[in-house]
Amino acid sequence: MQYHLSTFGCQMNEHDSERMKGVLEGIGYREAAEQDDADLILFNTCTIRGSADERFLGNLGHAKRIKRERPDTIVAIGGCWAQAQKEVVFEQFPFVDIAFGPGEVSRLGELVARERLDAVGAFSFDGEFSGSLPAKRTRVHQAWVQISVGCNCVCAYCIVPTVRGKERSRPLDAVVDEIERLVADGVREVTLLGQNVNSYGRDLPRDDRATFAELLRAVAGLEGVSRVRYTSPHPKDMKRDVITAMAECPEVCEHLHLPVQSGSTSVLKRMRRTYSRERYLDLVGRLRETIPDISLTTDIIVGFPGETDSDFLDTMSLVEECQYDGAYTFVYSERPGTEAADAMEDDVPEDVKKERIGALVELVQSQGRERAQRFVGTTREVLVEGPSRTDPDRLRGRLSQNIAVNFSGTAEAGTLVPVRIDRATSVTLAGSLVEVAVPN
Ligand code: 5AD
Ligand code: SF4
Hints:
Layout: E1 2-7, H1 11-26, E2 30-31, E3 40-45, H2 50-69, E4 74-79, H3 80-84, H4 89-92, E5 98-100, H5 108-114, E6 120-122, E7 142-146, E8 148-149, H6 160-164, E9 168-169, H7 172-184, E10 189-193, H8 212-220, E11 227-231, H9 240-248, E12 255-257, H10 265-271, H11 277-290, E13 295-302, H12 309-322, E14 326-331, H13 339-343, H14 350-372, E15 379-387, E16 395-399, E17 404-408, E18 416-424, E19 428-433
Helix pairs in contact: 8-9, 12-14
Bound molecules: 5'-deoxyadenosine and iron/sulfur cluster.
């Protein structure tokens, strides 16, 4: 029996997909290269913006055709889109056999076995952490580690709390156990994952309670862990103890993805982000003061209901002030069931949204290009990931600042090596390995 899995969306979905593969291979399935060869066609879906839905629905058409030709094929849809569409999925897509939400990854094996009887759905929020399931990892030396699921925020634009439920933290011991196993398996870099990663621990029972800063220190201190990253934090929970832990643990990377969403305090207020422009800038100032070499990236939405020209200019000036190394930029997309969709009018005209995103993308790109120049002429520690994708004679790795570098030289994947940076193109650096003299 063979399965084919297509993944959409964020790193949490990438992580869940590795677990889905682990579960399926545990019950005897093998991975097929093409949907056409598969007995089970599985999708792990995203629904964060309308464009995510459209991309997935475009793909679903092919599965429908296969099902028509080979009615024995199982079509299964997991993830956030499935959760959001749980009331209508089987009605609107009668060729779908299984649908399950992000909280039910652990039941995939059981659902596949039961499907033969009837179409089945599973949509609870309190299933087993997918982080505790077997995984088929795609990267040898890097791993995602789930530390929490769900989100207690009420950002007006966001569908995530609806599809991933309330926040639940995984006990610190379980996280540490998993990382020790990963290290034994060759992993050197871990990325701690949660929808709101730095509010970790508040929901744990009193005896087990731990803060995100404590978790960060515990993970950084584990034998064999060279690098720790985490994503995504919320600015409101970026407290002093977390910044200090980052500064004091050399294993914790000098990179922070710190979503700002808007540079206008009045937009931030209507978004229910719970911080102002000033408080965000103050936080960035403290981060740069404590960790001078930190690279910052962010998420920004343009065209939120009621966004004026002056609000948008506030976003542009905030980007200039923050000096981001990169940013994901999005046009606001109305998501049914969110506060913004229910109570606010999507009133920024399409052409204005387009104009704003164009100007913002240009600014972000030129800033990123300029910022990358600061590495040229310096020697940096690089975690070797493997051969370069474009030139197999060169190697590929990443700086602590999460910037990719292609370089010449010989080094083993999974090791930290010094690389002299010679050039910076828009998004990647180029350099050469610095040979370290080994005393004999
Ligand atoms: N429209 C546009 N962008 C959105 N995001 C979340 N919800 C929406 C939406 N309705 C963006 C935010 C978030 C990122 C993952 O996606 O910037 O940080
Ligand atoms: Fe998409 Fe959000 Fe779900 Fe990730 S959590 S897959 S971004 S809807």
